[in-house]
Amino acid sequence: MPTVDLPHGRFHYEDAGGRGLPVLALHGTFGRGRTFAALAERLLPDYRMIAPDLRGHGLTTAGGDFNREAFVADAAQFVETLGLAPVLLYGHSLGGVTAYQLAARRPELVQAVVVEDVGAVTDETAVPEPVLDVTGWPRRFATPAEAAEFFATTPAQEYFLESVVDGELLFDLDTMMQVQDGCRGVWWTDWEAVGCPLLLLRASNSFLLGPELATEMVRRLRGAELVVLDDTGHWMHRKDPDGCGAAVRAFFGRTTSRRPGG
User: Fold this and answer.
1) Cβ contacts of residue 40 below 8 Å, gap of 6+?
2) What is the four-CA torsion angle of 248, 251, 253, 255, rounded to 10 degrees?
3) Would you say 201 and 229 are in contact if contact means Cβ atoms under 8 Å apart?
4) Is the distance from CB of 176 to CB of 29 less than 8 angstroms?
5) Does any domain span residue 260?
6) Which residues pair with 186 in a beta bridge?
7) Residue 108: C-alpha distances to residues 32, 184, 255 (Å)
8) CB contact at 8 A, 40 and 16
9) Residue 48: which of 247, 226, 228, 252 has the closest Cα?
10) What is the C-alpha to C-alpha distance for residues 60 and 26, in angstroms, rounded to an integer?
11) CB of 201 closer than 8 Å to CB of 238
12) Per-residue pLDDT for 199 more than 80?
């Protein structure tokens, strides 16, 4: 797993490799870059997905603040340091908010953006329970079976299990509460400032992005596209990598100015 040193720490990232156009993929809270493995396979060889472990997550050592500015700055520095600009950007949940905020605030770095199942409003006015309370969760598990049993009660067992290594959680529980709290808000200003092509992916049974909000988001952002995938749940890149990959391929194919291998 390659690494890159940025101002606030060392970032580990997954790299699908090849000569395809780079796609920077930003995962959600509690996740790791490896969550996109199946989707990355569907995008090869035309697109090379690069997916860092974000600050506070996975094997990345970066800490400090966990507000929106910090995550956007990390993404910008990652793009600049690896020479990816203007990059194709993909963001899920927490990473989706970062993706459209980066596109809005640093437009020169982003060519097109895909936002997976997250809204321009992420507080209680749009999401009944915007924060998963992990206070009191165990940090260590005696056996893989114990970890599997515990995370069977969460919305996405395998997603969380990717962050259990040698029986220990790779993320700090207090940090995850800070990350979630920092992502809550009303972000219409950023959403409406995106100037590049944007695709919004929504799961038909999403618990985070309702149909009314998704429709309003597309109405407010000229040229934005909406694709709804049936019964995939919030983690659509895992549940339906074929459908997700097809939608992303079609979108990038219509909107990119550089061709794969170019």
Assistant:
1) 14, 16, 25, 49, 51
2) -140
3) yes
4) yes
5) no
6) 121
7) 26, 26, 16
8) yes
9) 252
10) 13
11) no
12) yes
Residue 262 counted as domain residue: no
| CA 208/CA 198 separation, integer angstroms | 19
If one counts the domains in the chain, the total is 1
Q: Is 4 helix (H, G, I), strand (E, B) or coil?
A: strand
**Residue 183, domain CATH:** 3.40.50.1820
Q: Is residue 105 included in any domain, yes or no?
A: yes
Structural domain range at position 14: 3-255
Query: Average pLDDT of 108-112?
Result: 97
Can you say how many angstroms the Cα of residue 189 is from the centroid of all Cα atoms in its chain? Answer: 20
In contact, 126 and 143? CB cutoff 8 Å: no
Cross-strand pairs, 3 = 12
Structure tokens at 1: 């797993």
Rounded Cα distance, 153 and 156, in Å: 8
Whether 234 has a pLDDT exceeding 60, the answer reads yes
Residue 261 lies in a domain: no
Interval 75-88 mean pLDDT:
97
Question: Which helix H or strand E contains 203, and what residues bound it?
Answer: strand 198-203
* Length of the chain in terms of residues written: 262
Split at pLDDT 50, 70, 90, the class of 262 is very low
